[in-house]
Amino acid sequence: MQIRNTRVLRTVAATAASMTLAAAGLTLATASPAQAAPRCNGSKPGTFAGKFKNNTDQTIMVKGDKYVGKDSAGKAKYKTVEVAVGRNGGTALGAGVCDADFIKTYWDWLYNGTELVDGDSWRKIQGSWSCWNTPGTGYRINCG
Fold first, then answer.
1. 119 CB-contact burial (10 Å; exposed 0-12 / middle 13-18 / buried 19+)
2. 3 and 65 assigned to the same domain
């Protein structure tokens, strides 16, 4: 039997890797609100928080952690949210996100210099990122 669907192959490979790691006593961790505490100082970004500024003329979606208050023990609580960051200087913090993890533009595609990137895909924010317009180039919005 030959599998031609790359999505199926990726799923099978990921499942096999997860089972192998689990058998070895290792676990795979994904970003979660619980991991926001060291990166956020309450509702403000901490030293290692992902930060984002939108200098384009388009709204950009950001996925990250939002401070939602304190629990009964006085410990800060966070929730992973997707919010729109306004154009012309909007920030993730202004949209209520203290640790921005991913961005998604509304463009169908963009060119990053070597490949076409699906604009509907989330892109990882590492450190401080901003996006700006780049008219007259191979891509409409540049982020990094």
1. middle
2. no
**Across residues 80-107, what is the average pLDDT?**
91
91: part of which helix (H) or strand (E)?
strand 90-91
Give me the mean pLDDT over the 32-57 stretch.
87
The 8-class DSSP code of residue 127 comes to S
In this structure, what token pair is assigned to residue 31? 């970003």
Alpha carbon distance 105, 103 (integer Å) = 7
How far is the C-alpha of 127 from the C-alpha of 143, rounded, in Å?
A: 12
Q: What is the pLDDT of residue 100?
A: 95
CA 4/CA 81 separation, integer angstroms: 35
Residue 87's contacts (CB-CB under 8 Å, 6 or more residues apart) are 54, 56, 57, 58, 59, 60
The alpha carbon dihedral of 42, 54, 86, 109 has a sign of: negative
Q: Distance between CA 32 and CA 137 in Å, rounded?
A: 36
* 68 and 120 assigned to the same domain: yes
What's the pTM value of the predicted model, to 2 decimals? Answer: 0.67
Q: Are 125 and 50 in contact (CB under 8 A)?
A: yes
What residue numbers bound the domain in which 12 lies?
Answer: 1-29
Q: How many Å is the Cα radius of gyration of the chain?
A: 18
